[in-house]
Write a structure and sequence with these properties.
Helices cover 40% and strands 19% of the residues. The protein has 2 domains: 5-57, Arc Repressor Mutant, subunit A (Orthogonal Bundle), CATH 1.10.10.10; 70-151, Alpha-Beta Plaits (2-Layer Sandwich), CATH 3.30.70.920. It is α+β, with helices and mostly antiparallel strands. 13% of the residues are buried. The chain has 6 helices and 4 strands, in the order ααααβαββαβ. The protein has a 4-stranded antiparallel beta sheet.
Length: 161
């Protein structure tokens, strides 16, 4: 597994143009058949499959996933939260991260630099359930000193979809 940004850059430089095309097409449509992929990137099916398998083996393709329409599952409230901690120790961070792992509303948790320690993506059915998460879980954590909520009202560009 690659460990540093320099290693990633060096590794990406080694990826040829055809493999970059494969990555672009797969990032747009991970369910494309190998035959269709080979045709789109102008390779034989066997050469295309070898490249895809090599990208998977090297960890460049980390996996495939389904994109779920959350509104059809009753998720009507999405927000990003900036969370500040009053204790910057490793123990406080680990405790916060463990609490976020157990919170089904938290879809993403990122440790950041700057004025906050964490950026969360939270999805809830509605404002009432968000308030319960905000008050009963997040606000009750001992090291949380600040919570800033940014409610998503639209996503004109979302590369996760």
């Amino acid at each position: 597994m690659l460990r540093s940004f320099a290693e990633i850059l060096q590794f990406m430089d080694a990826i040829d143009v055809k493999s970059q095309e494969i990555l672009r097409v797969l990032s747009e449509d991970g369910r494309i058949t190998n035959l269709d992929l080979a045709e789109r990137v102008n390779l034989s099916p066997s050469a295309c499959l070898r490249r895809v398998q090599d990208l998977e083996r090297k960890g460049i393709i980390a996996g495939y996933r389904a994109v779920v329409d959350q509104t059809k599952l009753g998720i009507g409230f999405v927000a990003y939260l900036g969370v500040g901690l009053n204790d910057h120790s490793k123990a406080a961070q680990l405790a916060f991260e463990k609490a976020m792992e157990g919170a089904p509303e938290v879809k993403e948790c990122h440790n950041t630099t700057g004025t906050i320690e964490y950026l969360l993506r939270v999805e809830c059915p509605d404002m009432v359930s968000y308030k319960a998460f905000h008050t009963d879980l997040l606000g009750a954590l001992p090291h949380v000193s600040a919570i800033t909520t940014y409610v998503v009202i639209g996503s004109p560009k979302d590369m996760r979809k």
